[in-house]
Amino acid sequence: MSYDTITVESRDKVTLVTINRPQALNALNTQVLEDLIAAFAAFEKDDTQGCLVLTGSGDKAFAAGADIKEMADKPAAEFYNEDFFARWTSNLVRTTRKPWIAAVNGFALGGGCEVAMMADFILASEKAKFGQPEIKLGVAPGMGGSQRLTRAVGKAKAMEMCLTGRMMDAEEAERSGLVARVVPHDQLLEDAVKTAAAIAAMPPMAAKVNKEMVNAAFETFLDQGILHERRLFQILAATEDKAEGMAAFIEKRDGEWKGR
Ligand code: CO8
Q1: Which is deepest, 79, 116, 164, 181, by most CB within 10 Å?
Q2: Which principal EC class is assigned to this enzyme (predicted)?
């Protein structure tokens, strides 16, 4: 399948998706959304693929936000009636049950930061910069940024960033819990694909369940999250991969996964 605004390639069990509008710092217009929805759906369906990496083309940006030129003249009623931005969350977060990583190679601002935060975790290059500068445009985050950023870095930093629009560099983002790891700029992609390959080599159903459990901690109260975890663990305990994984450990060999 070919796309207008992204490139997609498979590296063994890893799908690498690159937002490809470097002239607009990979700003997220409607076509990027449509292309990403299609690419994520194809990844989700393809049993040969176990983990996805999303990154931005060029040396400067992961994505510098939703496309301001596309939004500038859009009336409020259209934002509401189209429920603009809702499909990002329903497709990239809800219906993608396999793990995916955002490899942030530069600016991740506004919607770009919000899409990065939809990933299961973020790996950042030393050049990465995160921010929610929407206030400077007279608006506010529209794709979950005020909620996910606050949960990731806490109220003080999230509030300061949303109210001033200031950017956070990679080192501060790691210190604040927004990103899993910072890596040298020229090693970002290699590291992200290697990390994704390690995840893709795991028992596939266990990977989905682990993702669902950690997300429950983000989305529910503690008691509900712990109950959710226990029930999912009990389901995994009935899988062939659980029997195989434990047998492989005891027999000192690698496991062979069936995804059930
Ligand atoms: N949208 C459209 N075009 C963009 C965007 C963007 N978000 N960001 C950059 N571009 C374009 C520039 O217009 C420029 O194009 P051209 O060459 O045709 O003039 C090109 O990319 C290069 O950008 P710059 O020349 O500005 O590059 P600099 O290195 O000087 O600056 C910055 C880099 C600091 C990243 C700067 O481009 C910038 O501030 N960009 C905008 C960042 C921003 O505000 N992002 C948030 C957008 S809003 C959003 O994401 C969520 C909105 C929720 C709204 C909810 C409404 C209900």
Answers
A1: 116
A2: lyase
